[in-house]
């Protein structure tokens, strides 16, 4: 029998979640008020590096409304509690203890040193000013190369070095390719460049917050987190609590972007204080605290060498990274650059590849995952290098890419980094993008503007990218020494009336899981979209999960939902056969009904649900339940790809950049909900373009963050961005039954190099081959006046240094 019901998968449905979110009928962590709840405020160090001589809290303790004041020694007198790091990338990685509150030494400006507990938030914050801390300042080390220099001040004296770890991948050693040193010796072209990935702040809408209630049978924590299941396990392990007595709830969360993937000192602090006082407590950070104390992202120096023959065929790629960890190690921070190790080769057929990353401690806020986590950095590096190689060889930058990328007929393709890309069609995505963009027409206009000496020059930027997402096959994570797996769990409950509850371990913070999961289950079980409820974010109702990051929700969590639905049907089939007095082999399922082949006899999933509930007439030995669960561990990553094209106009008299048009054609496999896909792409583009043109976290020579407010840390508004032209091609993934690939980070990964390539392309005839991000008007103007060597950037092999242009000097 054929179904006449329109499939849900592929339909652009508005999100179920949005009604409550945009009307305010929802609950954020800071909205929670519990009986007897107390409020916390954290005193943070103004110094980046200092000994704590003394902390006098006597006056604060007597302030109005104050219940208690705690220092680090009060909460952890033995100094035994340290925040977890789940990714020891090498056996000899140095992992200093990160305390809940600093007791002896502060290692970055913003580190907590004391906490006030009061009856109101205002009273707690007022009392902070009454705490007197005597600091003895220590030398500060900032900058990756400075930190590794001989005689540099040490962030952690007991380690004897600022080097955290060195991680190396070599294709010759791994058996995935030949020697890169041979390629350097034997190739006709050897091109070296140095690029800077500036430090960024994940500027989520909702600051971090938690509420801890110790008064029931379980300790309950509400947190604005991306990772409630990981937070539960890590809270138990860090504080020595029985895990079954800990419950974590992530209510609606106002953005994360990787910035809420951490296990926070403040969460552990709140738990200890709630237990100590026997009362619920709430901690909500201010926006200013977010800027200095929430983890930062990126912050790398990339030294890249690409080798090729004169005909444009690439022969090798060498990557040497320095990555800033900040003062401590984040939950997955050491591994973030390592994720990029597998993506520098991108869509290209490099026969030789070498990657080495040195992680470094500095007296700054720690870095950790930020949207894309290692893959944007890698994509930026290789896409900038492909442009530079094209210029060196006198080729069109699109031509050099087309010559070296994996052709559609070559999939599946095992790369020089050892990953097997299952499917893709870079030719199709590029052809569609060029047509939408009018690539040839814009190239003609560019030539005309140059010939006429137009003060506003036009540049065209290209980014043809892929990424590995769907983190991650557990065995791969194990081979990289990550502490946990990459599986995901889902359950489906079939209620007596045929309504459905879907329980997912992939805890959403804005991605639209409730809508997409409902669409998947509606198609699988043939029940109406409206009859499905998706439950997530509570470790008691969703007891098992690995949470949300790394574009894993659909291609790992969604597949667990698919497989759980398959199990529901497998349970329902013998019951349907029994009810219709036929053989299971005679049944087919479509549009929510089991039918006897060749007849009009059928029974719906709703009828079966009631029969199971009543249990009056079931086959012998069949349990009265259709409820099913699945834990899915992916066999491979998913590899979305796309072509992003940017046209940028640069005013050579002022350095101002205007994005005239932006076209992207992404291939995310089968799209469950194209409207959600488009929203994810738009959001990602905004963040990637922001890195290229606007955002940078800057410290002064004493380690104070000088971009600590949105007056100084520049975020783009809608008025600063163009209207995006987006489209899709579709090559289904072959490694999951939906054929889906990730989309959550695609826009961020691809857009930054497209924009920078466009701006550099516009002013290259002035002798510019790089401008350090963000490309502020001041930096662009300075580059035009003096060429790359003085562009505030790292430029070519001979460029050296980090430049001296003030990052805020070009704020528009």
From TrEMBL:
It is an enzyme of class 1 (oxidoreductase). Residues 23-139 form the Aldehyde oxidase/xanthine dehydrogenase a/b hammerhead domain. Pfam families: Ald_Xan_dh_C, MoCoBD_1, MoCoBD_2. Residues 725-744 are annotated as: Disordered. The keyword Oxidoreductase applies. InterPro entries: Ald_Oxase/Xan_DH_a/b, Ald_Oxase/Xan_DH_a/b_sf, Ald_Oxase/xanthine_DH-like, AldOxase/xan_DH_MoCoBD1, AldOxase/xan_DH_MoCoBD2, AldOxase/xan_DH_Mopterin-bd_sf. SUPFAM superfamilies: CO dehydrogenase molybdoprotein N-domain-like (SSF54665), Molybdenum cofactor-binding domain (SSF56003). The keyword Glycoprotein does not apply. Residues 725-737 have a biased composition (Polar residues). Its EC number is 1.2.7.4. One of its GO terms (molecular function) is anaerobic carbon-monoxide dehydrogenase activity. Keywords: Molybdenum, Oxidoreductase. This is Carbon-monoxide dehydrogenase large subunit.
